Amino acid sequence: MSEKVWGDYPIYYKQPFRWARYHAHTKPHFFFSVLLGVSAPLLLLATPIRRKLLYSDHEPIPRVYPLPTRARDASLSGYDD
C-alpha cells in the first residue's frame, strides 16, 4: 500500500496558494528556480528607486596610485624617492 507524501494534487486556478505550497514541498528545485526567475525583473526595477530614495552608488575604487601635484624633489638620490 503506497502512502501519499503530501495530500491530493491541488488545482492551480482554484487554490493557487495551496498549489504553490504543494510544489514547494514536492519539487522544491523547480519551485525556487521559478521564484528566483520571477524576482529578477522586480530587482531590476528596484535599482532606480534605490538610487533616488535611499542611497546613491558608491565611489569607484581607484585603479592607480594618486600622484602628487607638486614638482619632484631634485635632491633625492637612490631609493629615497
N-to-C order of helices and strands:
HH
Mean pLDDT: 82
Structural class designation: mainly alpha
Q: Would you identify the regions where 5 or more consecutive residues have pLDDT less than 50? A: none
Q: How is the main sheet built?
A: none
Helix content: 40-55%
Overall shape: elongated
Radius of gyration: 30 Å
Task: Compute the separation of the termini in Å.
Answer: 86 Å
Figure out the total of helices: 2
- Work out the number of β strands: 0
Tell me the β content. under 5%
Short overview:
Helices cover 47% and strands 0% of the residues. The protein is mostly helical.
Task: Describe this entry's structure for a reader.
α1 (16-26) crosses α2. This protein has a domain at 7-54. The protein is mostly helical. The mean pLDDT is 82. It has helices at residues 16-26, 28-54.
List the SSEs and their pairings.
Layout: H1 16-26, H2 28-54
Helix pairs in contact: 1-2
Features:
mainly alpha
